[in-house]
């Protein structure tokens, strides 16, 4: 039985017995998980100037403080605001303006949604995303033939769910100048019988992106606000946006300064020459809502599109190993440049070969560097001998729903032995590093923080499959999961002293749920609801 967290209100003694300190908000009669060092419980807290002023019992808080706004929680559970340690916030917002292909069960389903979307929107260039051929009866990549017939003059570009493959039509290929002779490295421009199929994987996708019309500033701002609304509904008060450009960062900052955009963002700048040249010779940029102090590098592709770089060939494709998206020397050059700056390096690594390159490089550069907190984003398939490199200075940043999304076909890609020894090994990563930062990777996965929590502790889908859980030995406890979504995620952002727990002096970011996620029956976790989301003590949902 956890002890109730109490505080000595020494400062109150300085006042007369009949005087109370004025604060902005008092919350009472709650079941508060503070997620402090002792994982203590409390009943009430006071908020002043956007920060927690005091935490204790209801009687302690109400006897020492008074406020214009009070909230009786009526026994409901309250937690620190959730932090998504790896997502694509800006991309989520833009996708609300595109054709949504999530949940499609066939190529015909994709085509139907495009036709319906175009009838309503009449776009000069159709974009969309969310398809996953692994959910179809025919699990092979689709081809562009039907799109060419229906839309011969309108370019179409459709991202796979993981963002590492594109299906495009001939009009989009022509606009980008892509032919069977187009050179590329780090990915694929797929051909069959000497003809382009319309599938591009990883690096060549940039040719398509460069030829697309760019969103206007109004469309960008609209996207940010749409993403914010979705995130607040799931109790997120900080989101790590994993790979954005200077233009997006500066728009976020401008909207935040005018108090239109409230979400706290930890920005990973995309690894482009322009971004690196602008940021790395400067100090990190930090406000209460925006923290720009990390670089995002893509090591390899994704397992679902067979772009993850593996040490041994794919079990379901002879002679295929995936690919690093940049030469090893290029990665080492960028890593060395970041090491000489004040910035953190966060590298996407899915396959065991990519993880090996990243971990060895990190280890060599950080041997004499304390508290750099470089991160491995995904750390999805790690060779058994490479777990030793993880620590609080080389942090695993993982997304539990990847395990429950991939579990139906992951063994086909990897084989049983490789899967069991080091894939989706969140508990093993935690035991080695001492922490894991948890995220969703939305919109690759759903925004839902509750699906993240459920996947981490149950290792099942929402249909209760598989019985007993997928590789259940790698499940996290509820306490570990809550820490991974709050204080450990804050630590991975160098923000543990200002958020991630309900403690005096930290931002008053907190959420109230309809049921206690720490005690509700496991099967009910995906169905939980956020009753209220507070940021800086202000109710934002």
Set out the fold topology:
Layout: E1 21-28, E2 31-33, E3 41-42, E4 44-48, E5 51-56, H1 58-64, E6 65-72, E7 77-80, E8 82-87, H2 89-95, E9 99-100, H3 107-121, E10 126-131, H4 145-150, E11 156-160, E12 165-168, H5 170-176, E13 187-192, E14 195-202, H6 205-211, H7 217-233, E15 236-244, H8 246-257, E16 264-270, H9 273-279, E17 285-286, E18 290-298, H10 328-339, E19 344-349, H11 352-366, E20 374-378, E21 394-398, H12 400-406, H13 410-414, H14 416-422, H15 426-433, E22 437-438, H16 449-458, H17 478-484, H18 487-492, E23 510-513, E24 530-535, E25 538-539
Parallel strand pairs: 1-6, 2-7, 8-15, 9-10, 10-11, 15-16, 16-18, 18-19, 19-20, 20-21, 21-22
Antiparallel strand pairs: 1-4, 2-3, 4-5, 7-23, 11-12, 12-14, 13-14, 17-18, 23-24, 24-25
GO molecular function, one term: hydrolase activity, acting on carbon-nitrogen (but not peptide) bonds
Organism: Zunongwangia atlantica 22II14-10F7
Pfam families: Amidohydro_3 (PF07969)
Describe this structure in words.
30% of the residues lie in helices and 24% in strands. The protein has 541 residues and is of the alpha/beta class. The chain folds into three domains: 21-75, Roll (Urease, subunit C, domain 1), CATH 2.30.40.10; 125-211, Diaminopimelate Epimerase, Chain A, domain 1, CATH 3.10.310.70; 217-539, Metal-dependent hydrolases (TIM Barrel). The strands form four sheets. Strands 8, 15, 16, 17, 18, 19, 20, 21 and 22 form a nine-stranded mixed sheet that branches. A six-stranded mixed sheet has the order 3-2-7-23-24-25, with no helix packed on it. A six-stranded mixed sheet has the order 9-10-11-12-14-13, sandwiched between helices. The two termini are 32 Å apart.
């Amino acid at each position: 039985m956890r002890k109730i967290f109490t505080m000595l209100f020494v400062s109150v003694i300085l006042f007369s017995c009949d005087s109370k300190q004025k604060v902005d908000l008092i919350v009472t009669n709650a079941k508060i998980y503070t997620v402090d060092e002792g994982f203590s419980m409390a009943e009430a807290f006071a908020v002043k100037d956007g920060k927690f002023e005091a935490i204790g019992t209801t009687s302690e808080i109400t006897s020492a403080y008074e406020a214009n706004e009070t909230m009786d929680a009526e026994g409901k559970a309250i937690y620190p605001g959730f932090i998504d340690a790896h997502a694509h916030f800006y991309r989520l917002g833009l996708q609300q303006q595109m054709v949504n292909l999530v949940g499609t069960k066939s190529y015909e389903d994709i085509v139907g949604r495009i036709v319906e979307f175009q009838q309503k929107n009449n776009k000069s260039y159709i974009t969309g995303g969310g398809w996953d051929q692994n959910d179809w009866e025919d699990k092979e990549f689709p081809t562009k033939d039907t799109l060419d017939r229906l839309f011969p003059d309108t370019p179409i570009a459709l991202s796979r769910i993981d963002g590492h493959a594109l299906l495009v039509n001939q009009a989009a290929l022509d606009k980008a100048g892509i032919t069977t002779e187009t050179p590329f490295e780090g990915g694929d421009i797929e051909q069959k019988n000497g003809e382009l199929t319309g599938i591009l994987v990883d690096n060549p996708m940039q040719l398509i992106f460069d030829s697309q019309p760019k969103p206007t500033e109004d469309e960008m701002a609209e996207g940010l606000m749409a993403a914010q609304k979705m995130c607040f509904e799931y109790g997120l008060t900080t989101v790590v946006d994993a790979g954005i450009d200077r233009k997006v960062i500066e728009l976020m900052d401008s909207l935040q300064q005018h108090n239109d955009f409230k979400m706290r963002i930890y920005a990973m700048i995309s690894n482009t020459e322009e971004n690196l040249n602008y940021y790395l010779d400067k100090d990190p940029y930090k406000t209460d809502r925006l923290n720009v102090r990390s670089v995002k590098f893509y090591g390899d592709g994704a397992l679902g599109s067979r772009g993850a770089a593996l040490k041994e060939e794919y079990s379901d494709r002879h002679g295929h190993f995936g690919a690093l998206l940049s030469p090893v020397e290029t990665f080492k050059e960028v890593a060395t440049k970041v090491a000489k700056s004040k910035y953190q390096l966060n590298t996407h690594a899915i396959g065991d070969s990519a993880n090996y390159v990243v971990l060895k490089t990190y280890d060599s550069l950080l041997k004499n560097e304390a508290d750099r907190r470089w991160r491995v984003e995904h750390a999805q398939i790690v060779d058994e001998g490479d777990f030793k490199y993880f620590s609080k200075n080389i942090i695993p940043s993982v997304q539990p729903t990847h395990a429950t999304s991939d579990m139906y076909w992951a063994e086909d890609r990897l084989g049983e032995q490789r899967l069991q020894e080091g894939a989706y090994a969140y508990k093993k990563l935690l035991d080695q590093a001492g922490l894991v930062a948890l995220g969703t990777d939305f919109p690759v996965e759903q925004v839902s923080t509750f699906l993240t929590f459920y996947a981490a502790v149950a290792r099942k889908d929402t249909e209760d499959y598989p019985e007993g859980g997928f590789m259940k030995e790698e499940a996290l406890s509820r306490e570990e999961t809550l820490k991974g979504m709050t204080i450990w995620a804050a630590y991975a952002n160098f923000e543990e002293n200002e958020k991630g727990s309900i403690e005096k002096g930290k931002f008053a970011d907190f959420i109230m749920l309809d049921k206690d996620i720490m005690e509700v029956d496991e099967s009910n976790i995906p169905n939980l609801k956020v009753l209220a989301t507070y940021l800086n003590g202000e109710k934002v949902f």
